[in-house]
Amino acid sequence: MQRIAIIGAGITGLYAAWRLQEAGYNVSVFEARDRIGGRVLTKTLNEAGRDYAFDVGPTWYWPDSERLMTQLVDELCLPTLVQSTNGKMVLERTPRQIEEHRLPEDQTVRSHRLVTGMQGLTEAIASRLAPGTVQLLSRVTALTKNDQVELTFEQDGTSVRQLVDHVLVTIPPRLAAQVSWRPELSEQVHRQLEGTPTWMAGQAKIVVVYKTSFWKQMDRSGFAISWSGILQEIHDASPQTGPGALFGFFRLTATERAALGETEIKQRVIEQLAVLFGEAARHPIAVLYQDWAAEPETATVADAAPLTDFPAYRPIQLEEPWRDGVTLLGTESDPAFGGHLEGALQSVERWLVAFN
């Protein structure tokens, strides 16, 4: 039985492990973090004795265009909800100059969310894996290519080596460049790895939770665009029942966020939401903040530079002697859905066709 190692327990690595185990392969997944999911992260808030899920990583998928995500969610029987768009959007062109606009219904492409949060997806996939498949707190530090591929990983303060027939590297390309490759990768491949931006690695996400979705009483959808505030884009993140929530993406760069600090950032976000949605926005019951640029298992120093355009993602082909023993997969390798969860799944399916 062929032995396959997977570096990274994000959605790419977990999905690849599941599909490979179904096909009869011996699979191990090595994850440097103390949790699965990678950039998929859901935080839970208990309100009135009930837990509610709020995503601080990816939130949406689009059933009209994302076939694999839709099939996977259906297969795993995960409950979904349609992203709320009812009501008027808010536009802040200049500071405190607020406009309201009702977007045409036929111009809105409806996205879906998971009731459990996207972490429910990664946990559901992981539950299908054989016990012991995923090894947490196991950082792969080196790959050595001979007849087979030898992994070196750190676990419980000990350096461990393991021989496998094939390795799937599902961590972001810039993190893959930090692994010690023996023999070294070509300069061209190394430049490709370093030059591929990690999607959302320079961003942060904030979720502000309230007792109710008070903006709906104002005939507002919760969607807002600001050309001047600390948040540049805001959306409704409310669960089907219970509290209301708004989440936002920042205008600030990673360096600017680090200089301000989390406390000041939260205060400025609340102030901006009060300008956009009224005084009720000053009284949240929780503020959930995740800065992905501060995550060493997600971002490198290069990812702090803000993107000026959507990256042109594509597969990165390794050269000999690595080509037959190691494959790079992940959302950053998919030209059609790069940056989306669908892109992660598509990269796996594309490789499986070639591998089998």
UniProtKB/TrEMBL annotation:
SUPFAM superfamilies: FAD-linked reductases, C-terminal domain, FAD/NAD(P)-binding domain
Lineage top rank: taxon: Bacteria
Amine oxidase domain span: 104-347
Matches recorded under InterPro entries: Amino_oxidase (IPR002937), FAD/NAD-bd_sf (IPR036188), Flavin_MAO (IPR050703)
Gene3D superfamilies the record matches: FAD/NAD(P)-binding domain (3.50.50.60)
PANTHER family registered for this protein in UniProt: AMINE OXIDASE, AMINE OXIDASE [FLAVIN-CONTAINING] B
Protein family: Belongs to the flavin monoamine oxidase family.
Protein name: Amine oxidase domain-containing protein
